[in-house]
Amino acid sequence: xxxxxxxxxxxxxxxxxxxxxxxxxxxxxxxxxxxxxxxxxxxxxxxxxxxxxxxxxxxxxxxxxxxxxxxxxxxxxxxxxxxxxxxxxxxxxxxxxxxxxxxxxxxxxxxxxxxxxxxxxxxxxxxxxxxxxxxxxxxxxxxxxxxxxxxxxxxxxxxxxxxxxxx
Length: 167
What we know:
This protein is of the alpha+beta class. 32% of the residues lie in helices and 31% in strands.
């Protein structure tokens, strides 16, 4: 397995980002879905995108170190090698949260569920965790569906957010 590849699913490769991804990541950051649900991932320029990718790449040397989050990986189609999104882990008050996004063009094709399911299993094993969290805005129905189809269980609702757990 290529050392850039973390994991594969039926249709996707979960891989480390590289600087060849700058244009695509910048383009995705301008899409409607990212602007609405992940506004902190909207970049002002390709230069800012490059700095973000350099930072994310610097984190890879620590995998799987519980003290060095975030870890964010690109999602690439096996057929066509198109970068279609990302998935990652961040530290939150409750523990570790999974976060993900799929480019608008590839939304509603089951990619998010496919990758969240496989990546969540991988994360529990490789980081020796007993649970993983998914936190979503209560009106983000698509993301709620992804978590529920990926075997996350609703733990609580507060302040407009749904907190899901994967054990």
